[in-house]
Amino acid sequence: MATAQAIEPPRSAGLIGRVVVHRRLLALALGLLAACGFQPLGLWPIAMAAMAGFAALVASAKKPGEAAWLGWLFGFSHFTFGNNWIATAFTHQAEMPPALGWVAVPLLSIYLALYPALAALGARALAGRGLTLAFGLGFAGCWTVSELLRATVFTGYAWNPFSVVLLGPFDRPGLAALAPWFGTYALSGLAVLVAAGLAVVVVRRRWIALVAASFLLSFGMTLPAGKADEGTRSFTLVQPNLPQHRLNDSLFYEANFTRLAQLSAPRETGRQRLVLWPESGLADYLRPGYPQHYYDRMTALGDPDFARRRIGRAIGEGSVLMTGAVDLEIENGRAVGAYNAVTALDESGEIVGGYVKAHLVPYGEYLPLRPILEPLGLSRLVAGTIDFLPGPGPRTVDLGAYGRAGVQICYEIVFSGEVVDRGNRPDFIFNPSNDGWFGHFGPPQHLAQARMRALEEGLPVLRSTTTGISAVIDARGVVREHLPLDAAGRIDGMIPPASEPTLFARLGALLSLAWAIGFLGAAIIALQRQRI
């Protein structure tokens, strides 16, 4: 009778298991380190080194499926750390437990990590195993496509494209100066290609090449921006430093207005200037025609005409104001929706233009699947029981002698290729925002992405925020002046001039797509030559 014997696995099986675990832990670590290149840390050498390590890890994967899994792990830690500021937003609302924020961030990252996973899967499947030129080009193309998809699918979430790590300090654009010829997403692909090249020279121990490449990167990141041109239109940009708890509390409405008015007072009587107020700072409904009880909830004695006239008096003769505001959609005497808007008013309080936000924040300004999620206790982060409604998209507001303003409210500014009406190019972009939700990580990241839009479009961007960081960014992506976090103040000056339309300004996101196709085509050619 035969006796059963346990089959002992070969000793190598345990070693392989430990290697697999270590590779997965390494992917998680590299994703976190790559996010250190984003603001406020700005550690771009660490971010590039981490991306180089990730490229080597993906290239060494035995199968495309393993590469995808490593990409997902990289993305999970990358987006969890990079988006940590979202958790802070949950502490500024009373409808849901604040601790839910620390669940929401990793839950969001579970989804966002799919895009690095797709990039890793595509590069490994296309170029095969091993660090080669074909792999680097394929990885660049797939990463570009993944960022384009991330910015588009399910209304898109374009926050923190990898190319943002290439931005230099406030007084110089760094290697992000290439954005006009690539676009943000293709520039991310180029950064990935460079990182893969760094991995190659390390693996092959080409230390002289590594030193030379590191020097060139450092030189590019610190290259001066050059002489700045001066504008001819005067502006006053206001940052009132209104903490989040004051914005939706009627006890503070009048004090909030008073602070905005005091910071906007003219310093020269009759001088023609544009005054810029942030999103969320003004409580008044400015447009006529709503049922009276909506006005009674606000300040200005329940009278929109009086509210507008006193704003006109506050800004003074010769001034035009652009301010964040809320408009209502009324049906049968009740509000069925709201609009996150910018309203332009002249010195008499007359409305002379406006814009409605088009790219709304899911769960922030509207609750997707409301009939299902609301009974479960979920709510929007922005106060109110009705959802915001989207506007028609980028529009240029013609203010006559005060210039032609492209308007992007808050979150909209992060979407490359979607910030300007290409048939009616503005002179500048006004980006009012309320960043008081987002702690100390969100605002500097938001500012960095506004700088990328200035570079891509060749247009100055003027950011007015409730609590900071407000800034004047010229068409080279240089921050000329700024107001720091948690400080009240104003910036007076001349609006920087626009540059000639850049290549990206003419082609938009198609330029990034063309580069993605170019990277992938070059990868296929390199792969064929590799096989000869």
Describe the structure.
It is a single chain. The chain has 532 residues and is of the alpha/beta class. It has 18 helices and 12 strands. The chain has helices at 11-35, 44-59, 64-82, 85-89, 101-112, 114-127, 133-150, 179-182, 184-203, 207-222, 244-247, 253-264, 292-296, 304-315, 370-373, 442-457, 503-507, 509-531, and strands at residues 234-239, 273-276, 319-331, 334-345, 351-356, 396-398, 404-407, 428-433, 461-465, 470-473, 479-483, 489-494. Strands 5-4-3-2-1-12 form a 6-stranded mixed β-sheet. Strands 6-7-8-9-10-11 form a 6-stranded mixed β-sheet, covered by helices on one side. Strand 4 and strand 5 form a beta hairpin. The model is unreliable at 1-17 and 372-377 (pLDDT under 50).
SSE map:
Layout: H1 11-35, H2 44-59, H3 64-82, H4 85-89, H5 101-112, H6 114-127, H7 133-150, H8 179-182, H9 184-203, H10 207-222, E1 234-239, H11 244-247, H12 253-264, E2 273-276, H13 292-296, H14 304-315, E3 319-331, E4 334-345, E5 351-356, H15 370-373, E6 396-398, E7 404-407, E8 428-433, H16 442-457, E9 461-465, E10 470-473, E11 479-483, E12 489-494, H17 503-507, H18 509-531
Parallel strand pairs: 1-2, 2-3, 7-8, 8-9
Antiparallel strand pairs: 1-12, 3-4, 4-5, 6-7, 9-10, 10-11
Helix pairs in contact: 1-2, 1-3, 2-3, 2-9, 3-5, 3-6, 6-7, 7-9, 7-18, 9-18
